[in-house]
Specification:
single chain; 15 helices; globular; binds flavin-adenine dinucleotide
């Protein structure tokens, strides 16, 4: 088997040395670990097809992997699968300056895509704190959201077409990038959020968005969850060119300041904070100031318009994930609530966690503009599912989604039925059987065990 794989990708790109392979076998949160039987590093689509042909011949389970920044354990070989690393497919080609599109290899990072877009006067609609490692292929496979969903939509909204090798061994390619193209099933849309279970994405045609050079970032302090959530709803309706609306609490802020040696943003602490970003062709500061003034509930404000200060305010929010990792291995429960239950959820969930495990600590932050809360729980053993079960149950009771943007992976697999009917899950299985009839592609994620 190793010999067949070496014939496809070359001897240097079949990694069996356990020391070298080890970094591919542990996820970013350190909650999920495994030992890959080998790491295969193809250079192009033809080699990906060749690798999958060998996997089909030898019935080998394979986990596609991009930047390995996924947070639901979907990209690590917990059962000793092969890792198919797409990182070498990193070229960005066919940049269309006039039309605002480019073709990204699956292994190109989001930072690379953003730079290529900026070089021709455009921007990319997806941005997330993992931008330097997360790949085009991985963000498509997870339908990643991030910091600008309320303005541009999730990854699915940026993808005009994909090239992929399906589990059947067939390569499909639809990269023309026509703005309107109703010619049958939306295979690109289907692969968005498929978590490597249907096909291996090798390239994607991505739409770009106009640059918005005038940025205003405001950090607002609030005394209550109700006040912050009400302000979020108001801002979504009234703030022009709103690009981000993020929430975090004082315990998270204190941790970030402590871990990274940052000064606190205000002379005193407040219970929680909203970070608001407007991005426009024109200066929006006067409008934002007026809106903040008319929102009586804001207790304090820090505003920035130059890049350095804007980035400085963003650090308080963006560095939460890294800071929490220093406390312990977190259970990362990324959920969305309907607006009508968001306050109730935020106020209730820490008690629910404490009841499930008295040693647990809850950290809350998230993309409030989308009703999306990242519930992070530390102080719990990685394989203890009691806290997860309680939080997922609360989310379902309140009519929310157990996965807002990270996907199902291994982490949420037992609870897919909280959001999907048995008819929907049966349809998922039928799609899986059609596109991956031998079940070689990431067989241990997304779909429930039975
Ligand atoms: C600090 C930090 C901040 C983050 N912020 C956000 C955020 O704001 N929003 C958000 O949505 N996510 C966020 N994430 C999670 C993560 O960055 C995203 O899920 C991202 O899309 C994963 O991309 P990746 O290339 O690292 O994929 P990986 O982790 O390598 O893989 C993720 C999944 O995609 C599959 N996959 C990878 N590449 C391919 C491919 N080419 N073809 C088919 N399947 C493939 C894998 O099998 C796995 O199931 C964050 C993570 C970190 C560490």
């Amino acid at each position: 088997m190793a010999k067949s794989l070496m014939e496809v990708v070359g001897e240097d790109h079949v990694v069996i040395d356990p020391d070298v392979a080890a970094s591919y076998g542990i996820d970013w949160s350190r909650r999920y670990t495994g030992t890959p039987s080998a790491v295969i590093r193809p250079a192009d689509t033809a080699q990906v097809a060749g690798v999958l042909a060998v996997c089909r011949d030898f019935s080998l389970a394979v986990v596609p992997q991009g930047g390995n920044t996924g947070l639901v354990g979907g990209g690590v070989p917990v059962d000793g699968e092969l890792i198919l690393s797409l990182r070498r497919l990193s070229s960005i080609t066919d940049v269309d300056q006039a039309g605002g599109q480019l073709t990204a290899g699956a292994g190109s990072t989001i930072a690379d895509v953003c730079s290529a877009a900026a070089a021709v006067g455009w921007s990319y609609g997806i941005d997330l704190a993992s931008r330097d490692s997360a790949t085009a292929g991985g963000t498509i496979a997870t339908n990643a959201g991030g910091l600008r969903v309320l303005r541009y939509g999730p990854t699915r909204s940026q993808v005009m077409g994909v090239e992929a090798v399906l589990g059947t061994g067939v390569t499909v390619s639809h990269l023309a990038g026509l703005t309107k193209d109703n010619t049958g099933y939306d295979l690109a849309g289907l692969l968005c959020g498929s978590e490597g279970t249907l096909g291996v994405v090798t390239a994607a045609r991505l739409r770009l968005v106009p640059e918005s050079p005038e940025r205003v970032v405001a950090l607002l302090a609030f005394s209550s969850v109700t006040a912050a959530v009400s302000a979020s709803l108001e801002f979504r309706r009234t703030v022009p060119d709103l690009r981000s609306l993020e929430l975090f609490f004082d315990d998270g802020l204190a941790l970030v300041c402590d871990v990274f040696g940052l000064p606190r943003p205000f002379p005193k602490a407040y219970p929680l904070y909203l970070l608001v970003e407007m991005a426009s062709q024109i200066d929006r500061l006067p409008e934002l100031s007026e809106i903040i003034e008319s929102t009586g509930a804001v207790d304090d404000v820090a505003v920035a318009t130059d890049t350095a200060r804007c980035d400085g305010l963003w650090q308080y929010r963006e560095r939460h994930t890294e800071a929490i990792n220093t406390v312990g291995t977190p259970h990362k429960l990324d959920v969305t609530l309907p607006w009508s239950h968001l306050v109730e959820f935020i106020e209730t969930v820490p008690n629910v966690v404490r009841t499930a495990n008295p040693h647990a600590t809850t950290w809350l932050f998230g993309h409030t503009g989308d009703g999306n809360v990242h519930v992070n729980v530390t102080g719990v053993e990685p394989d203890d599912l009691n806290v997860d079960e309680h939080v997922m149950t609360l989310v379902a009771q309140l009519g929310g989604s157990i996965s807002a943007e990270h996907g199902i992976g291994r982490a949420k697999r037992p609870w897919l039925h909280f959001n999907r009917s048995k008819e929907e899950i049966a349809t998922f299985r039928a799609i899986k059987n059609a596109l991956d009839p031998l079940g070689i592609l990431n067989p241990n994620v997304l779909l429930p065990v039975h």
